[in-house]
Every structure is written in structure tokens, then in C-alpha cells.
Design goal:
Blueprint: H1 3-10, E1 16-19, H2 24-32, H3 40-51, H4 55-59, E2 60-65, H5 67-70, H6 80-86, E3 90-94, E4 99-101, E5 109-111, H7 117-127, E6 131-138, H8 147-166, E7 170-177, H9 185-205, E8 214-215, H10 232-246, E9 253-256, H11 263-275, E10 282-287, H12 289-301, H13 306-323, H14 330-337
Parallel strand pairs: 1-2, 1-10, 2-3, 3-6, 6-7, 7-8, 8-9, 9-10
Antiparallel strand pairs: 4-5
Helix pairs in contact: 8-9, 9-10, 10-11, 11-12, 11-13, 12-13
The structure holds 1,3-dihydroxyacetonephosphate.
1,3-dihydroxyacetonephosphate is lined by residues 19, 135, 174, 257-259, 287-290.
């Protein structure tokens, strides 16, 4: 398969990406909230339960894994990447080494992980990965994000994406403008515009073939502490407008992060965006919390109740699958609850 074909498979209409690449530290927080011990056995048990659910075939085009998980063998027989491929999705891997304090700035980060990346990519390819993810993080405040943060994170994303294509995998380019703060939706629009522009500038300098990439952006939303709430219609309009202005048309797929939105909000907003999507971008989800929150709750109640955990996950995957077609509705959510 060409990189363009892989990118289109990951974002195929009706499907999206499951971001199950929480680092051991992040999954510790998720498990703490449900009183589950953060040990390898439990992490494998939760994840393989999702990867083996019936929703995989119909609604999931790709799964992003963490380093530990891509090396694991499922207790069901195949290795984790084999299990994912068998169920019709493309296995992928998070390759950045996390957002680290940015020297010269206060309270901003730059994502690290370029040293030794070429060698790690070769290993991941041999383990079955066909795409990768790198997340840059931007904070909004009166003085942030700084030019320094926008430029250094974009530079790293450009070099990362070039190395990944050299290794014959599709890079997911993830510049995440955080929802934290009291800024309004227009400020988010402005910052997202600046961030996307600098990222595509660097991808061009680094000769990245955009047809073989996927963008994973934030939606354009007001800060979580902003008093002026926005309707899903406004979020959809501004998000699509921002993407059409700032993402080159060669990019085949755009897969949003959920970024702290609730499960319902992230489905509803994605649905509104697809209802008005008049671009050629395949617009879908690459959710972590937006896909897993209910399933995690069930796992917390009883780790061995595979049926209930899968039922919760299947439902969220189905709802988001419908949102990629603009066919989601509150009534369908209610039907499931009943
Ligand atoms: P959330 O959907 O929970 O924001 O996670 C997506 C992700 O992969 C962030 O890097």
C-alpha cells in the first residue's frame, strides 16, 4: 500500500482512529479514577478487550499504540499488532518522548524524541506499525503560545514527519492547542491558525509528501473556563473554516483529538462538522478519552465483564462512526441508554 492509501484507510468514511497510546504515566491517572492498579497485566487486559471488540471491523480504521503495547502478545493468541490488523485496522505507534519544558520560556513545552528516531522507526515497522504519532502541545494565555514555542514545535514536527515517511509509514501530525483557560473561541481560532501555518511551513521545508500524512488537530472551541459557551454549530463552522484556510488540500485526512471534551460533546461536534463539510478532507476522530471513558468505567466496575466493557466501547465507536457521516443524533444516544 502507498502512504496515501494507508492514510485514507485510517480515515475511511464511517471509521476513525482509536488513540490507545496513553503513556504509563497517563494511563496511571485514568486507572486511578476507576480504582484499578496500574500494572502491565491490567493495561493489557483493558486494551486487548477493546481491540477484540466487534466495533473494530466497522468503525475503527487505525489504533495508536504505546511502546509497551506494540511489543505485547495478547492472551488471545496473536501479538497486539496482529490482533488489530486481523480486525481490519492499521496498527500505529506514538513515537514522541513527551512534552518537556521549553528552555527560555516559562510554562511552555517542546516535544522531544528526535534523537535515535530513525532506528526506533525501523524497529516499529518490523513490529507491524504502518503509521506513527507525534504530539506538540500549545497553551493559550495572555502571552502564550510564544513564537518560540510555535517555531520549535513545528520544526520538530517537520523533522519527525520526514523521518517517518523515509521509514515508509504515515506520520500523524498532532499540534494540540489546549482547551485550558478562559480565552474565547476567536482566540482559539487565531492561535490554531498560527500553529497550523507554521507546521505546514516546516513540513514543506522538510519535503514531506502531504498526501501521505494525517493531521490530528484540536477543534476550534472556547477555553474550558470561558463564560461564553459556543453551540456545536458555531464550533463546527469555525473549525471547518480554520481548516479550509490553513490546511493544504493535499492532506487526505483530518482526525480530531477529543482534548477533554465529554464523549457526547466530541461526537456531537464532529457530527456538526461533517454535516457542513464541503471540503475534500476526510474528517474523522482520533479520540482517546472520547472513545474510552465509558468503557473504562465498566472496566473499573468489573475487569472480567468483557461483554459490558465491549458494549460501552462498541456504542461510542458506532456513534462516532455515524458522526463521520453527519448521521449521529441525541435520539440514538438515548436509545442506547434505554
Ligand atoms: P484525547 O482524545 O483524550 O484528547 O486523546 C487523544 C490523543 O491522542 C492526545 O494525544
Amino acid at each position: 500500500m502507498t502512504l496515501n492509501e494507508i492514510a485514507k484507510k485510517m480515515c475511511a468514511k464511517g471509521k476513525g482512529i482509536l488513540a490507545a497510546d496513553e503513556s504509563t504515566g497517563t494511563i496511571a491517572k485514568r486507572f486511578k479514577s476507576i480504582n484499578v492498579e496500574n500494572i502491565e497485566k491490567n493495561r493489557l487486559n483493558f486494551r486487548q478487550t477493546l481491540f477484540n471488540s466487534s466495533a473494530m471491523k466497522d468503525f475503527i480504521g487505525g489504533v495508536i499504540l504505546f511502546d509497551e503495547t506494540i511489543r505485547q502478545k495478547s492472551t488471545l493468541g496473536p501479538s497486539i499488532p496482529e490482533l488489530i490488523s486481523k480486525n481490519g485496522a492499521v496498527p500505529g505507534i506514538k513515537v514522541d518522548k513527551g512534552a518537556k519544558p521549553l528552555a527560555g520560556s516559562s510554562n511552555e513545552t517542546v516535544t522531544e524524541g528526535l534523537d535515535g528516531l530513525r532506528e526506533r522507526l525501523k524497529e516499529y515497522y518490523d513490529l507491524g506499525a504502518r503509521f506513527t504519532k507525534w504530539r506538540a502541545v500549545y497553551r493559550i494565555s495572555d502571552k502564550f503560545p510564544s513564537v518560540q514555542s510555535i517555531k520549535s514545535n513545528a520544526h520538530a514536527l517537520g523533522r519527525y514527519a520526514a523521518l517517518v515517511q523515509e521509514a515508509k509509514m504515515v506520520p500523524i501530525v498532532e499540534p494540540e492547542v489546549l482547551m485550558d483557560g478562559s480565552h474565547n473561541i476567536d482566540k482559539c481560532f487565531k492561535v490554531t491558525t498560527e500553529v497550523l501555518n507554521e507546521c505546514y511551513n516546516e513540513l514543506e521545508i522538510n519535503k514531506v509528501d502531504l498526501k501521505g500524512t494525517v493531521l490530528k488537530p484540536n477543534m476550534v472551541v472556547p477555553g474550558s473556563d470561558c463564560k461564553d459557551k459556543s453551540s456545536a454549530e458555531e464550533i463546527a463552522k469555525k473549525t471547518l473554516d480554520c481548516l479550509k484556510r490553513n490546511v493544504p488540500a493535499d492532506v487526505p485526512g483530518i482526525a480530531f483529538l477529543s482534548g477533554g471534551q465529554s464523549e457526547i460533546e466530541s461526537s456531537k461536534n464532529l457530527n456538526e462538522i461533517n454535516k457542513i463539510n464541503d471540503s475534500n478532507f476526510l474528517i474523522t476522530f482520533s479520540y482517546g478519552r472520547g472513545l474510552q471513558a465509558s468503557a473504562l468505567k465498566e472496566f473499573g466496575k468489573n475487569q472480567d465483564n468483557i461483554e459490558n466493557i465491549q458494549k460501552a466501547f462498541n456504542h461510542r465507536a458506532k456513534m462516532n462512526g455515524l458522526s463521520t457521516k453527519g448521521k449521529w443524533s441525541e435520539e440514538l444516544e438515548k436509545e442506547f441508554a434505554a
